[in-house]
Amino acid sequence: MTAVTPAPPSAAGAPAPTDAAPPNRPGGRSRLPAAAGFACGAALLFAVAPLALSDFRLALLAKYLCVAMVAVGIGIAWGRGGLLTLGQGVFFGLGGYAMAMHLKLADAGPGGMPDFMQLYGQLDELPVWWRPFASPWFALPATVLLPMAVAFGLGSLVFRRRVRGAYFAILSQALAAAMVILLIGQQGTTGGTNGLTDIQGFFGYDLDDPVNQRMVYFIIAGVLLALLALARQLVHSRYGELLVAVRDSEERVRFLGYDPASVKLVAYVVAAGMAGLAGALFVPAVGIISPALIGIVPSIEFVIGVAVGGRATLLGPVLGAVAVAWARTALSERFPGTWTYLQGLLFVVVVAFLPGGLASLWALARRRGAERAEVSTS
């Protein structure tokens, strides 16, 4: 008889897999619910929202969806990997400034200088490090690769030294503060406190035209759906299982022969790339990028949105980010003097009564329905 070699245990210490795929892998669950969810999301974003919302509200929704892209990355790093990233504003800002620099140079024309450089009068010619951003072939990849490179360098130093928990959160938050100080101090080349403003064109399209604004919205909506699909594939892969195992028992994963630092580094770099892409698309949607949009407070607001939506799910961070951003706009319009307190109260209520976030409402409703059905049957 031929000997059968037993399969090695998983990182979480579960029994060896059988021929049937486990329920938490793509092969073991029906893909119809996921496909139906993406179809519903596409219908809402591409059909319902443009018809139901005015141009102003649709532009606000485009802004909210950019925040939701950052939330998708935080959901992977924090929800699956346990990495409380309080400095995602840094990567959001790197992507945003890279895109804004290219668009400002495009508005200035060949050989021209951005308007704020001429206004401040501190420079006679374009800085050397600005010049590569005149090319879209350099600027577009830089919006994603530059944040990922910074995250790779920082993560390599931090995770190799086993910095985690609150220490990692404080370190990432300090990075956001340092980024803001650096941008404000370089007024002649970064616009200082004002940032890069009055962006008028987007690759030859006038952003003042409502038709072009809708085009930017459709691009943002499509990219968000693509990021969700990528995140789902990553979460339900073998790497996703290993990331959860590192979150739950890092030492045990290390004893099994894996390198937890490399596993966490991948999640951190992916989240940074998503934040950079969100910042790049935020610029044509809003027309500005400034230090006030990438500092400590915006970084914390990104995490709050994920916590409100439910960090343990795929769709929860998106729902939470959009809900928190919408609540901020709605409350500030109706209660200009007290909207910050109401927003804080909303966060406390959700965390206290829905620890799983808004995404847990569906599971809670199903559980209540099952309990009522069982009671009526008995």
Automatic annotation (TrEMBL):
Residues passing through the membrane, by range: 32-53, 60-78, 137-159, 166-185, 215-235, 255-275, 281-300, 312-329, 341-364
Compositionally biased residues, Low complexity: 1-22
GO molecular function term, any single one: branched-chain amino acid transmembrane transporter activity
Superkingdom of this protein's organism: Bacteria
Subcellular location: Cell membrane
Main location: membrane
Membrane topology term: Multi-pass membrane protein
A Pfam family it matches: BPD_transp_2
Keywords recorded for this protein, A-Z: Cell membrane, Membrane, Transmembrane, Transmembrane helix
Region listing for Disordered, in residue ranges: 1-29
GO cellular component, one term: plasma membrane
InterPro entries reported in the protein's UniProt record: ABC_transp_permease, ABC_transptr_urea_perm_UrtC, LivM-like
CDD domains in the record: TM_PBP1_LivM_like
PANTHER family: HIGH-AFFINITY BRANCHED-CHAIN AMINO ACID TRANSPORT SYSTEM PERMEASE, SLR1201 PROTEIN
Cited NCBIfam families: urea_trans_UrtC (TIGR03408)
Protein name as catalogued: Urea ABC transporter membrane protein
